[in-house]
Amino acid sequence: MRDENCIFCKIAGGEIPTTTLYEDDDFRVILDVAPATKGHALILSKEHYRNLYDLDSQLAGKALILAQQMTNKLKEALGCAGFNIVQNNEAVAGQTVFHFHIHLIPRYVGDAAGISWKSGKLSEADRDEIVDLISGKDKRDNINANKTPSREIKTAQAKMKDYIERHGE
């Protein structure tokens, strides 16, 4: 299915010229014409899906595998220090084109691209509410039955605390 009014449908379908890095039956990978950094690419679905919520699991999985393959190729070609893989869903989350796509943003030491948020703290009340909503009360009861954190959790918490102290929130 295509949306004749969707710019990304037209790009993915080859109606609008772009620099294509990769193409298969389901996706086209192009260089972004308004890049955050050198090598910023977009994975576009060829069929019209508004966002991740509309994709079936198999296609969503294929998109992530493709993101991994493309970032490996781009990292080797560009020599960048890292990558942000960004996929926004709905306007409140920054989605501006309502056609499923993934941003592959190479990161270079000292670049001006910014993707950040202020870290909060997960309260027990929020944790319990979320677990209840997602998994059901019996799952939360299992968590609460063992309130003493395991050695693995304590180690992870200590590492996170150390990271935040060294790098800030």
Question: How is this structure best described in words?
Answer:
There is one protein chain. With 169 residues, this protein is an alpha+beta fold. The chain has two domains: 7-107, HIT-like (HIT family, subunit A, 2-Layer Sandwich); 124-167, no CATH class. It is built from five helices and five strands. The chain has a five-stranded antiparallel β-sheet with strand order 1-2-3-5-4. A hairpin with a 3-residue loop joins β1 and β2 (27-31). α3 packs across α4 (137-145). The longest helix has 22 residues, at 57-78. The chain starts with 6 loop residues before the first helix and ends with a helix.
Would you summarize the structure shown here?
The chain is of the alpha+beta class. It has two domains: 7-107, HIT family, subunit A, CATH 3.30.428; 124-167, no CATH class. 39% of the residues lie in helices and 15% in strands.
